Amino acid sequence: MKNLLLLLALLCFPLFLIAQNLNGSFKIDIDGGYVKPTEGYGVTPGVVLTLEPRVYISDYFTAGLRLEGALIGYRPEYEDEYFSYFGSTTLTGEYYFGKGKNRPFMGFGGGLYARHFILEDYSGESLYTSDYGRIKLGFFGRAGVELGHIRFAGSYNVIGANFSYAAFTIGYVIGE
């Protein structure tokens, strides 16, 4: 019986260790939240969804790729327009303050943004997207805190097409 308890203790011991070095560790953030346009004609608040795989460059810095979609309300100029959609693919970097499970961070990123309007076709039977979706360069800054595997963040996105929006998200961190 003593040997069985010793073997069980030795097998469970690695579960209670905290890694000393995060270099090369991989994690994925899945976030959702509220988006508030700060510039742009006819837009109203909406929702945002984000998927961001990242890798630790050091214990304090991560680099990643953010894939984000923001569905923004739209007060139409014409009656057949419904809402506006932003899609973005950006490179990101984040700096973490501290090494514990609960730590604040600041980040930045830049990349490509595309905007589309969802419209009704002329017959009124189906929806289609506008051809407005030209790709624009943009950048963002963000700050937040990770509390274990829960992540709270606020970001401000500036897009070259004279449009910007703030996003406030809560998410879950897989990995680390």
Record the SSE blueprint.
Blueprint: H1 2-12, E1 26-37, E2 43-56, E3 61-74, E4 81-96, E5 102-120, E6 127-129, E7 135-147, E8 150-159, E9 163-175
Antiparallel strand pairs: 1-2, 1-9, 2-3, 3-4, 4-5, 5-6, 5-7, 7-8, 8-9
Strand content: over 45%
Summed up, the domain count is: 1
Query: What is the CATH architecture term?
Result: Beta Barrel
Radius of gyration: 21 Å
Mean pLDDT score: 81
CATH topology descriptor:
Porin
Model regions low in confidence, pLDDT < 50 over at least 5 residues = 13-19
Note the overall shape: elongated
Helix-strand pattern, N to C? HEEEEEEEEE
- The first-level CATH class is given as Mainly Beta
Residue share in helix: under 10%
**Largest sheet features:** 8 strands, antiparallel, barrel
Distance between the termini: 36 Å
Describe the structure.
There is one protein chain. The protein has one domain (2-175): Beta Barrel (Porin), CATH 2.40.160.20. The protein contains 1 helix and 9 strands. It has one helix spanning 2-12, and strands at 26-37, 43-56, 61-74, 81-96, 102-120, 127-129, 135-147, 150-159, 163-175. With 176 residues, the protein is mainly β.
